[in-house]
């Protein structure tokens, strides 16, 4: 494979269930970087809980966050590109406020949520920044929304379909997310490939979630994790191992690492 760049999802791909990067995954990435391959993170997470892992690996490439709604500079964290989503707020809150499920609103200025939970506590610990607001979101004064996340605890296609004319809808097993129309990890990747003058055919993308499907379909080589759903696997060219068994490293070692002999002229 003639690969110049790889875009790696975080949760369920790079990270273990305990939110750590395994030694094997780290070593595989280091060796790839030493070969001159550009390594990028492409995640649904917001910047503050992406940057610590980006720094841990030692990456110098921009970060794709919030499913492509934001791209951040590697050094300063400055937002290089931002795509806001506009909903009919009154209708959104009418449909979500009185139910038991949690709602999280990621904005350019921070996180607003209906209630806190274990995930948000983890984000606060890692990112060192607590939510700007916790409570009835109808009373919150937020602007410049990048992503809405609705955690219903079950697939909610009927509810999410209400927003399909206003936003890009990503359905999960425990709810759904909304970003601006035509925003995805792939749209952000396409923007960066133009900047770095890399062809999609020279790119590998690897992930496990419904927010990864577009990038897996459009890059030269799409790789689904073993823990991905059948829908995600169907969009990929390869299926590798489970994220708890270093599936990321397994693919890199098998297909992307050059042997010592290939360096000898």
Structure summarized in a few sentences:
By secondary structure, the protein is an alpha/beta fold.
Structure report:
The protein is of the alpha/beta class and 265 residues long. Helices cover 30% and strands 22% of the residues. The strands form 3 sheets. Strands 8-7-6-9-11-10 form a 6-stranded mixed beta sheet, with no helix packed on it. A 5-stranded parallel beta sheet has the order 2-1-12-13-14. A 3-stranded antiparallel beta sheet has the order 3-4-5, covered by helices on one side. The protein is globular.
Features:
265 residues; alpha/beta; six-stranded mixed sheet; 10 helices; 30% helix; globular; disordered C terminus
Main structural class: alpha/beta
Oligomer designation: single chain
| Biggest beta sheet summary | 6 strands, mixed
* Helix percentage range: 25-40%
Beta-strand segment tally: 14
Q: Main sheet: which strands, in order across?
A: 8-7-6-9-11-10
SSE order, one letter for each helix or strand: EHHEHEEEHEEHEEHEEHEHEHEH
How would you summarize the topology of this molecule?
Elements: E1 5-8, H1 10-14, H2 23-34, E2 38-41, H3 51-57, E3 63-65, E4 70-72, E5 79-82, H4 89-96, E6 102-107, E7 110-113, H5 118-127, E8 133-134, E9 145-151, H6 157-160, E10 168-172, E11 175-179, H7 185-196, E12 203-207, H8 213-218, E13 221-224, H9 230-235, E14 238-239, H10 247-256
Parallel strand pairs: 1-2, 1-12, 7-8, 12-13, 13-14
Antiparallel strand pairs: 3-4, 4-5, 6-7, 6-9, 9-11, 10-11
């Amino acid at each position: 494979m003639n690969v110049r760049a790889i875009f790696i999802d975080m949760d369920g791909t790079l990270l273990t269930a305990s939110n750590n990067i395994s030694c094997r995954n780290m070593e595989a990435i280091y060796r790839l970087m030493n070969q001159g391959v550009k390594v990028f993170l492409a995640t649904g997470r917001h910047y503050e809980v992406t940057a610590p892992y980006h720094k841990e690996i030692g990456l110098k490439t921009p970060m794709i966050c919030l499913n492509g709604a934001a791209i951040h500079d590697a050094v300063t964290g400055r937002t290089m590109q931002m795509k806001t989503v506009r909903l009919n707020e009154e209708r959104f809150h009418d449909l979500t406020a009185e139910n038991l499920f949690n709602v999280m609103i990621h904005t350019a200025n921070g996180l607003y949520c209906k209630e806190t939970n274990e995930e948000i506590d983890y984000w606060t610990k890692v990112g060192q920044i607590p939510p700007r607001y916790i409570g009835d979101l109808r009373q919150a004064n937020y602007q410049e929304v990048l992503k809405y996340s609705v955690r219903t605890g079950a697939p909610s296609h009927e509810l999410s379909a209400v927003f399909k004319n206003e936003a890009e809808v990503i359905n999960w097993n425990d709810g759904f997310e909304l970003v601006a129309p035509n925003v995805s990890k792939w749209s952000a990747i396409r923007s960066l490939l133009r900047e770095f003058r890399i062809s999609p055919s020279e790119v590998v993308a690897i992930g496990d979630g419904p927010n990864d499907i577009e990038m897996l379909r459009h890059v030269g080589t799409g790789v689904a994790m073993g823990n991905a759903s059948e829908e995600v696997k169907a969009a990929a060219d390869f299926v590798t191992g489970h994220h708890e068994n270093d599936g990321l490293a397994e693919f890199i070692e098998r297909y992307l690492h050059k042997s010592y002999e290939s360096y000898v002229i």
